[in-house]
Amino acid sequence: MIDEQGHVHSACLHWDGLPRCLWEILSAAGYPQPPLYDGHDFMEDGVRHCSVMIVIPQHPLNGWEPIVTQVIRHRLLDTWETTAMRAMTTFCSQHPLEVVLSVFGLFPAHDPANPLWLDRMANVDTIATLDPVGVLQMTALCLDGLYHLQTFQRYATAQLVDQAQALHLTV
């Protein structure tokens, strides 16, 4: 949905990617609705940019504080994916007990040397024993999301190179 200011509002669940992974994590944690992404394009110094913000609201039952994530990149698709990845990383870091013995505990931490991440990785065999199908599904979903992110970033980089070449020819 596009509002009168030109902002795109979406739950981003219309394809498999990191926004879908984020929603899987949040729904398992008891959130009743997926968060909405608010994105808009803008020009800065002749270069197209895209800003996306997502707010994971205060949890309806246990009062977790909202998580606000904003990312600025160059295309809407890669910005949605990057924003979801950062929001997932923040959620997993802020709520380690919710993810430690779930398939979501396999999602990468911001810092691989983080003791909470190392503890989650020490429980991989337990998680795989408790929910082998879930582990496979989450692994495939995250890999697919990362593939989408890489593809969208490749398109954005190609677009920037084209813009830089056009600018160079004009100068």
Primary descriptors:
171 residues, 4-stranded antiparallel β-sheet, globular
Can you walk through the features of this model?
The protein has 171 residues and is of the alpha+beta class. It has one domain. It is built from six helices and four strands, in the order E-H-E-E-E-H-H-H-H-H. Strands 1-2-3-4 form a four-stranded antiparallel sheet, covered by helices on one side. Strand 2 and strand 3 form a beta hairpin. It starts with 7 loop residues before the first strand and ends with a helix. The mean pLDDT is 82.
Describe the protein's topology.
Elements: E1 8-10, H1 18-28, E2 37-44, E3 47-56, E4 67-73, H2 76-94, H3 96-99, H4 115-122, H5 124-130, H6 132-170
Antiparallel strand pairs: 1-2, 2-3, 3-4
Helix pairs in contact: 1-2, 1-6, 2-6, 5-6
Helix content: 40-55%
Rounded to the nearest angstrom, the radius of gyration is 18 Å
Biggest pleated sheet? 4 strands, antiparallel
State which percent range the strand residues make up.
15-25%
Shape call: globular
Give me the strand/helix succession.
EHEEEHHHHH
Strand order of the largest sheet: 1-2-3-4
User: How much is the average pLDDT?
Assistant: 82
First and last CA, distance: 39 Å
Question: Tally of extended strands?
Answer: 4
Q: Low-confidence spans: pLDDT under 50, at least 5 residues?
A: none
Tally of helical runs: 6
Structural class: alpha+beta
Whole-number count of domains: 1
